[in-house]
Amino acid sequence: MQISSDSFKKTGLLHEQSLIDGEWRESATGHRISVSNPATGSVIGSVPDMSFEETNQAIAAADKAQKGWAKRTAAERAALLEAWFDLTMSKQQELGALMTAEQGKPLQEAMGEIAYAASFIKWFGEEARRVSGRTVPSPWPDRRIVTLKEPVGVCAIITPWNFPAAMITRKIAPALAAGCAVVIKPSELTPFTALALADLAEQAGIPAGVINVVTGMPTDIGAALTQSETVRKLSFTGSTRVGALLMAQSAPTIKKLSLELGGNAPFIVFDDADLDAAVEGCIASKFRNGGQTCVCSNRILVQAGVYESFAEKLAAKVNAMRVGAGDVEGTEIGPMINAEAVAKIDGHVQDALAQGAQIVGDRPAIPKGDTYVAPVVLKDATAQMRLASEETFGPVAALFRFQTEQEAVALANDTPFGLAAYFYTRDHARAWRVGEGLEAGLVGLNVGIMACDVAPFGGVKQSGLGREGGTEGIEDFLETKAFHMGGLS
Ligand code: SIN
Predict the structure, then answer these.
(1) Ligand 1: centre distance to CA 373 (Å)
(2) Fewer CB within 10 A of the terminal residue: the chain, N end or C end?
(3) Ligand 1 centre and the CA of 296: distance in Å?
């Protein structure tokens, strides 16, 4: 059933203030930032542009709340996370509609993201009760040594616009489960989903000040979060350029860091692959969220023997995709986030065409407006083209040709990034060789989607530090204390 894109307006979930210490707050300056629907350009609402000082107030609120939150038992924290999960799922349609309005992704996909986001709340609520230290064999006869797992404290959470719900919960659910409190700075392009989720968390009983949401432009808020000595950890998802900047800004206060940064994922199709399955996997990995994910395949490497047939099969599906507003039934590719994103994507396509790439078949029709891009399959891509070394972040499937397995792995690894890599083969020995040879934090064999709550997610090389999700995800929000107890002779 399709629901209207503005159904969220009646739900009370559209908040146009920041949330600090349980209070909805305006900025003292009165400056506001408008949030637009990428499908239409119309303004949905606005949020305050909070200052350096107001961000520090949120940090102080988190610091105060964290002490009491950490003293709750793990079972109490787990029960509150479970209640938050239930409330989030009970509002799946309304939250999905809100996300479609501010981010643009098709409504079914947005609702899928709400379920994905909620799965982190559930998973980490369960993990809260499994945090434990260990007993260390003591080298002294009169001493015992144990390790204690303790929350790191106040955490700064900076999230992107492409997954307005899941990137929030993948970070704050483990933080809360561990006993931390958070100050979130959501993307200024998509703040409403974050504010709605924080509201639901408080309705579920999570105490005021444990989750604070500071809206606004990045410079002052980022400076306050990184300069603060109270903030002990920063978790960021976004570009490698901004990640490096935040890392430098966090250096003087030696913060723990989790950085989920850019990617340039290879998707390799070997001659022995199940081609239909590879096409399905390629569509899933390349066109999810209109190609706007860090794990989207960016370079599709196809072995010479199946190159032409794979190109044709893929283009047949891609050229039949329906492009439109996210709240129109049947839309598969929504608008891009803004006109600048479209300019970059078009730039990649033009550059590739100028250097000899060819469009396979006819691209689908697109609605009027400056945020739509017709998905495209490009043949004869080469390493010199911009799309080989830069993340396109759009619905462009560029096919590179290779001859040997060794060449494919070398091409795949020829990037400073290492977030995700995919490959399709039916050869068991090759599966192990290539799986071990690819330099990436996530490797998919015969799969196009790897996002889930139970497995670790994160990159190597310039794709980042730390892991989110899985049992590893909560570890990143814990400190290990070695407790030596002497005088026991
Ligand atoms: C991302 O694009 O950063 C996240 C994608 C995912 O969770 O699969």
Answers:
(1) 21
(2) N
(3) 8
CB of 99 within 8 A of CB of 39?
Answer: no
Residue with token string 């090389």? 461
Catalytic residue selected from 155, 180, 282, 294:
294
| Ligand 1 atom showing the smallest separation from residue 292 Cα | 2
- Give the nearest ligand 1 atom to 289 CA: 2
Q: Cα-Cα-Cα-Cα dihedral of 444, 446, 448, 451, to 10°?
A: -50
Give the residue, by CA position, lying nearest to ligand 1 atom 7. Answer: 451
Q: Which long-range contacts (CB under 8 A, 24 or more apart) does 329-332 make?
A: 329/2, 331/106, 331/107, 332/106, 332/287
Tens of pLDDT, residue by residue, the chain (489 residues): 445 556 677 788 999 999 999 999 999 999 999 999 999 999 999 999 999 999 999 999 999 999 999 999 999 999 999 999 999 999 999 999 999 999 999 999 999 999 999 999 999 999 999 999 999 999 999 999 999 999 999 999 999 999 999 999 999 999 999 999 999 999 999 999 999 999 999 999 999 999 999 999 999 999 999 999 999 999 999 999 999 999 999 999 999 999 999 999 999 999 999 999 999 999 999 999 999 999 999 999 999 999 999 999 999 999 999 999 999 999 999 999 999 999 999 999 999 999 999 999 999 999 999 999 999 999 999 999 999 999 999 999 999 999 999 999 999 999 999 999 999 999 999 999 999 999 999 999 999 999 999 999 999 999 999 999 999 999 999 999 999 999 998
Is residue 280 flagged as an active site residue? Answer: no
Is residue 88 within a helix (H) or strand (E), and if so which, with residue range?
helix 74-90
Q: Supply the pTM of this predicted model.
A: 0.97
Distance 281 CA to ligand 1 centre (A): 16
| 170 CA closest ligand 1 atom index | 7
- Which residues approach ligand 1 with their CB closer than 6 A? 162-163, 166, 237, 260, 293-295, 451
Nearest CA among 195, 201, 200, 199 for reference residue 177: 201
Catalytic residue at 260?
A: yes
Q: How far is the CA of 407 from the centre of ligand 1 (A)?
A: 28
